[in-house]
Amino acid sequence: MRSYDTWNVLGMRLEKITGIIAVISLIIGLNWLGKPSANQSTLLNFLLLDKNKIGSDSSEVVLFTKLDEIFEKMLSALLEEEEKARSRNLSVPPQFLGKTIYKVKLCNDEKAISISFDDGPWPETTNHILYILKKHDVKATFFVLGRNVQNYPARLKQIVQHGHVIGNHTWSHSYRYHNKLAAAREIDNTAALLYKITGVKTSLFRPPGGFLNNGLVAYASKKKYAILMWSVDSKDYYASGPNLLNKVIRQAKFGGIVLMHDGGGDRSNTVWALPHIIIELKKRGYKFVTVPELLKLGRDCH
């Protein structure tokens, strides 16, 4: 990992590390009913990352050494987790870059399908969906809006931390015509914010409303994004839960990409239908993969 990427990841994960340290401090504090001893002061100095105040007493050295080992292991695990998430997001076979994709032709009878979510992140709905996906051990692809990422950055971090893939869905979800400058603002500003918050440089783009001729796709193609459409439209922006479920099950095919939404309005029907969709499609032999994984499965068939 490049040095500036490492520091970007470290900064992104600082809040988690700080939380763990705070918990340790609280546990220690609950056991200190009197004045802290020398060793307890040493531990406090470590938790405050003030190594200069740690003495040379052998017990203090041992204590610091053990805590330092724990900290290093914890940090290493966090970096490894983040690197895995980054690699899932960065890897798109080159033959798909600049192309518009509705579904993927699969070889060797692969029974794979991708679920994607648009218009998030959203305060509560995204959280509910992440819980469902984790419960059923499914990874998905989230096409996010820059303005929503700006409002709910913690939700975006959560998506990546859960091992899901993120894609660019423009800044404002506008359907109007965009000249080159306007398209650049919509796409590049979103991409810059995604990278700033997560360290991920996505190669996936989905045009708002599926509009292909309003200048956004032309710009994204020149920037070598893979343009991801869909083969299964859940219509979850107006369909009832049962109707939504039936639409997805009826239209599902191997190599397909399912369109759903975690943002943009009331998505309670989506939250209700999602676990039923996952369970039913798994019964029918489907395995769920992210969009980049689906593209990898199909790269030798194109």
Helix content: 40-55%
Characterize the largest beta sheet: strand count, sense, and whether it forms a barrel.
6 strands, parallel
Radius of gyration: 23 Å
What would you say the CATH architecture of the largest domain is?
Alpha-Beta Barrel
- Name the poorly predicted regions: 1-6, 26-35
- The CATH homologous superfamily of the largest domain corresponds to Glycoside hydrolase/deacetylase
Strand-pairing-aware structural class: alpha/beta
The beta-strand count equals: 9
Shape: globular
Task: Work out the count of structural domains.
Answer: 2
Q: If you had to describe this structure to a student in words, what would you say it looks like?
A:
There is one protein chain. The protein is α/β, with parallel strands linked by helices and 302 residues long. The chain has two domains: 3-90; 94-301, Glycoside hydrolase/deacetylase (TIM Barrel, Alpha-Beta Barrel), CATH 3.20.20.370. It is built from eleven helices and nine strands. Strands 2, 3, 4, 7, 8 and 9 form a six-stranded parallel β-sheet that branches. A three-stranded parallel β-sheet has the order 1-6-5, covered by helices on one side. Helix 2 (38-47) runs parallel beside helix 3 (58-90) and helix 4 runs parallel beside helix 10. The longest helix is centred in the first third of the chain and has 33 residues, at 58-90. The protein is globular. The chain starts with a helix and ends with a helix. Mean pLDDT is 84; it is low at 1-6 and 26-35.
